[in-house]
Every structure is written in C-alpha cells, then in structure tokens.
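Example 4.3 (complexes with small molecules)
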Amino acid sequence: MSEQSVSTAKQDKSEPSAGNNIAVTVHKTAIKLHVEDLHVTYRGRRGEDVEAVRAVSFDIIDKPGVGEIVVFLGPSGCGKSTILKAVAGLLPPTKGRVLIGDHEVNGPGRDRGMVFQQYTSFSWLTVVENVEYGLRLHGVGASERRARAMEILKHVGLDQFASKYPKELSGGMKQRVAIARTLINKPKLLLMDEPFGALDPQTRWEMQGMLIDISHREDNTILFVTHDVAEAVYLADTVYVLSRRPAQILHRIDVPTFADRTHKVKASPEFRQCEEQLLSLLYAK
Ligand SMILES: Nc1ncnc2c1ncn2[C@@H]1O[C@H](COP(=O)(O)OP(=O)(O)O)[C@@H](O)[C@H]1O
Ligand SMILES: [Mg+2]
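Answer. The structure with magnesium ion bound is encoded below.
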C-alpha cells in the first residue's frame, strides 16, 4: 500500500546505460497517510446514532525533505476533531480504515503527535522537563535529552524560559511547550486540533508564523484542523473543505504560496480572494 508506482519514468543520466537502452529511474511515491472511506458514528446520550463523519477518503503523499501543511476546514461541530482522533488512533472507525504507510492504525503511536486546543503540559515539571519527557520515557540519557529539548525550545522561541513552570507562562507560550513536547518525538505526522483557538488574535498570528517555520525546518506533515478561513489560507498548502455534520469532503484546494508570509499578506488582494473562495465553498448550499 505504501508504494505506488507513478508514471513519471524519467531519464537519469547519472545511471550507466546498458547498450542502447536508455537508463530510466521509476520514481516511486510513498503514501504517508491513507484514509479510506472513513465513517464514524457515535452513540448519543439517549442511545441515538450521531453520525459525525461520512465516507471521508484522502491520501497524503510522503514528500521527503518537504514540510507540508494540510488543513481541514469546516464549521464547528461538523466532525473535524473526530477525523483527527481517528487518524491519531484515539477512536476506532465505525467503517473504513486509516493506514500510516503499510500499517493500519489501531491505537496511538509515536509516529503521530497530537496538539489540542487545551494546554497539555505537566504542571509539576519545568518547561524543559516537559519537553524532554517523551525521551525520558524511552530511555534516552539525561544529557542527550536535555540537549535535544533545548534545541527544540530554541525553535519555538522558548529557550529563555526552560526553567519556568507552565503556570508562569502565557497561553501562547504554553501552546509552544505542547508543540515542542510533540516535536521532540519526531513524528511523521503532527495532528493539530484548533491549537490556536484559545489565543488572542496577535498571539495567534505569531503562532501561525512559527508553525510555518517549523514546517519548513522539520521533515514532517502537519494535519491542521480549524474553522477559521484566514488561518486556513495563511497556513495551508492544501485545504480540504468539509461539509456540515456529518463531515464529508466537499473540495480539495491547493493554496498558492504567498511570497510574503508576514501578517501583512492577510490584507493583500490574493489572500482576500483565496479567503472569499473558501468562504463561498464552505457556505455554499
Ligand atoms: N463522544 C461523543 N459522543 C457523542 N457525540 C459526539 C461525541 N464526540 C463528538 N460528538 C458529536 O459529533 C459531532 C462532531 O463532533 P466533533 O468532531 O468534535 O466536531 P468539530 O471538531 O468539527 O467541532 C458533534 O455533533 C458532536 O456533538
Ligand atoms: Mg473540534
């Protein structure tokens, strides 16, 4: 399942050719995440069925060396968190399946890191102890895990706060800790469920900028869920537009890369046009 031949047989001049044959290299494309006909139905309080996700299928291709942000955009209550939980292995599909590479997901794993809207640090550990916690669990030695934690803290702009406790931090900083805690495990997929939803607009913009930097630095894919159209346009390489509940994929949109990734881009005509397009798809009857 993970390897799919694609028809881009390409001449590779570096390979010796045998006789008159032209040496060709068939580039194989590995699929990082394969979601196939995913359905999730909950049992409601009165025993009724609550259908949250219907027939959702998509693939994320592994692009080695390229960080990518894929956004699921949909109205509140449509089933976004449910899709992410199924990918995280926190929830079994009612029907359909989720594969990471060749392996069917049937529980959480270190190849997938999850960041929620609520902060998830341990209050009794310092910032750096929180970040190195995952490595400690896996028996990485004290000096190595400290060095790796400090490096990641630098990437999220928190190296000066390593010895603070979470309660001494602002909401944005707590969320940086949560992201750093996840990044230290080097997950192939970073699953983010409206992680900036509780932050004030300015902090939110800063966090979005930081996430783009991270996606350029790390060789992983970020699956990001939001109901905020501007956030989707700003962050995404690809947006999947979801219907109201039960969540179904309505459209897949490739978002242009804006030359200017500062917050000023949000006032530009190209950005506004993309926002308009997504809004009209999202609220089309
Ligand atoms: N554990 C649950 N039991 C019953 N219904 C649930 C449960 N979790 C979510 N739901 C319902 O499923 C629907 C989709 O929820 P969710 O995936 O959290 O939506 P979103 O993240 O898009 O806001 C909502 O109607 C919600 O009330
Ligand atoms: Mg949600």
